[in-house]
From TrEMBL:
PANTHER family assigned: GUANYLATE CYCLASE SOLUBLE SUBUNIT BETA-2, SOLUBLE GUANYLATE CYCLASE GCY-32-RELATED
Annotated ranges, domain Heme NO-binding: 2-156
InterPro entries recorded: H-NOX_domain_sf, Heme_NO-bd, NO_sig/Golgi_transp_ligand-bd
Stated name of the protein: Heme NO binding protein
An example molecular function term from Gene Ontology annotations: heme binding
Source taxon at top rank: Bacteria
SUPFAM superfamilies: Ligand-binding domain in the NO signalling and Golgi transport
Amino acid sequence: MHGLINKAVQSFVCATYGRERWLRATEDAELGFAEFEAMLVYDREKSYRLLDVVCDQLNRSRDEFLEDLGTYLVSHPNMEGLRRLLRFGGVTYVEFLQSLDDLADRVKLAVSDLELPSLELQERSPTEFELHCHPGLDGYANVMIGILRAMADDYGALVILTHAGHQGGVDVISMVLVESAFAEGRHFDLGARN
């Protein structure tokens, strides 16, 4: 598994639960190290074992943990760069959703060896959408639910999100846009400030 993914988990655990929790988890998972390097690739089984250890220690399901990770990736000040990258997807939440079809390719342009599963947005009506998360990374749909929820807040949109199960090996996230301008979104400028 790519080091950037592992580093994101490490950052989330340290920022949310403390560095001691992280060190204990890496020891219990018998990794032999405590710090991930962002640009290295690690054995997938070690990454999943560490994830299971963290979830056991926190008494949380993997799905809940990964959803919280997705929220962290967008909302925590440590991750402002990712939030900005995602906000370039569009001026409105719907435009952002429509940009997700290209997310895996855009990530690959930035980090050539980072493989994310492809996403496919299906518009059922102007307010109802399905996001299909293709296989390739266990738990990716749960991370995306957290990201989608946090981005809705970022845009000021009121959205109902549910993991609608699997269809032909693809995870489906169902979204209902209740109100596109429910609250004032977080400030965002496309241009850099001096």
